[in-house]
Design goal:
The chain has 185 residues and is α/β, with parallel strands linked by helices. It has one domain: Rossmann fold (3-Layer(aba) Sandwich). It is built from eight helices and five strands. It has a five-stranded parallel β-sheet with strand order 2-1-3-4-5, with helices on both faces. The protein starts with a helix and ends with a helix.
Length: 185
């Protein structure tokens, strides 16, 4: 069992070593600017990444900005009635894009979290955000996928294709690190 644990932890360590420091710095700067300008940070993901998006939104919401106000962060994964209504009445590929079209304003931030970086509903949401002056940050794994290419800021953790656990664990740790840095600043 110890060898299996060491193998897993080594894969996480290798994935973290692939993250460029400039990507972390750009991500932190984008999020800090959103907090300081009272912009809303929207978060999206599917499956385990949806849970990470919800957790990150909670952490950001506990962070004070430079005006002494708490951050505005919303996980678009959390309202099951809206998610299922859009999925049923339109298409699951539109589940986040439609919510953004109702809620988001220019200057807000969209954070997408995906191991593959290729989920159609996330790609549509990033494209919508880019067209409507909503800042975009993606967290991706594997080879980065489409999200890494189309997001203004890309926080990419290079992993073996299909290594969801390592990608999702790294994203969760990065979210905690970013939250901690935002609180300290």
């Amino acid at each position: 069992m110890n060898n299996q644990a060491n193998n897993y932890f080594n894969r996480i360590s290798n994935a973290f070593s692939s993250v460029a420091e400039v990507q972390i710095s750009q991500s932190l700067s984008l999020l800090k600017n959103a907090l300081d300008t009272d912009a809303t940070i929207y978060l999206i993901g599917n499956g385990g990444s949806a849970a990470t998006a919800s957790h990150f939104a909670a952490d950001i919401s506990k962070t004070l900005n430079n005006k002494g106000r708490f951050g505005k962060a919303v996980s678009l994964c959390d309202n099951s009635s809206v998610v299922t209504a859009i999925s049923n009445d339109f298409n699951f590929d539109q589940v986040f894009e439609r919510q953004l079209s109702i809620l988001a304003n220019p200057g807000d931030v969209l954070v997408s979290i995906s191991a593959s970086g290729n989920s159609a509903n996330l790609v549509r949401a990033i494209n919508y955000a880019n067209q409507h002056k909503i800042e975009t940050l993606s967290m991706s794994g594997f080879t980065g996928g489409e999200l890494a290419k189309i997001s203004k800021v890309s926080l990419h953790v290079s992993t073996i294709d299909g290594d969801y656990g390592v990608a999702e664990d790294c994203h969760s740790i990065l979210c905690h690190f970013l939250s901690e840095q935002l609180r300290q600043e």
